[in-house]
Amino acid sequence: MSIYDFDFKVPDISGNLVSLEKFKGNVVLIVNTASKCGFTYQYEDLQKLYDRYKNKGFVVLGFPTNHFDNQEPGTNEDINQFCKLNYGVQFPMFSKVKVRDEGAEPLFNYLTAVKPFKGFNNFHPSSRILSSLINEKVPHYMHGNSIKWNFTKFLLDRNGNVLHRFEPTTDTVDMEKDIEAIL
């Protein structure tokens, strides 16, 4: 099954309801984001990926969340301005959502059910710090398949099938070969 079988509709950063069906036919990278996270620098690389491959049918969809350690406290307008001014973000951004636990956006429940958590990239310098932080502040987050932190990414093929899950400790450059393979 694909995300298009469920007709997910989510509000964009301006509050307009958007059917994800709009992106059918594109290779899609869905990422939960935050403006005050140690991984916020990934916005720059996500924009570079979008610029590099958008003419080949690739799109990044950003979903801000304040779920992890209050790292996205602003309004949708604040988030939109921050992304544009600091990182030149031009890929579609959506309204702030919950990505785990009660009240989570159904899209993220689906994504995590299809691609479970398999651990952080232990070679990434932030992996141990992130694991320690989660274990200290919210140890129950490490159990199950839910999203563990900001900048978790899901790569979908042109038909909306979820092919890969990349944790925040996977740098965007390390995803590029997977993106190119399905473009």
Verbal overview:
This protein is an alpha+beta fold. It has one domain (3-182): 3-Layer(aba) Sandwich (Glutaredoxin). The chain is 28% helix and 16% strand. The chain has 5 helices and 6 strands. A hairpin with a 5-residue loop joins strand 5 (153-156) and strand 6. The longest helix has 12 residues, at 42-53.
Put the structure in a nutshell.
Keywords: Ligase, Oxidoreductase, Peroxidase. The chain is α+β, with helices and mostly antiparallel strands. The chain has one domain: Glutaredoxin.
List the helices and strands and how they pair.
Elements: E1 9-11, E2 17-19, E3 27-33, H1 42-53, E4 58-64, H2 76-87, H3 106-114, H4 127-137, E5 153-156, E6 162-166, H5 176-182
Parallel strand pairs: 3-4
Antiparallel strand pairs: 1-2, 3-5, 5-6
- Summed up, the domain count is 1
Query: What is the rounded Rg?
Result: 15 Å
Helical content band: 25-40%
One letter per element, helices H and strands E, the order comes to EEEHEHHHEEH
Q: What's the CATH class, please?
A: Alpha Beta
Low-pLDDT runs: none
Overall 3D form: globular
Pfam family, one: GSHPx
InterPro entries: Glutathione_peroxidase, GPX_AS, Thioredoxin-like_sf, Thioredoxin_domain
GO molecular function, one term: ligase activity
Family: Belongs to the glutathione peroxidase family.
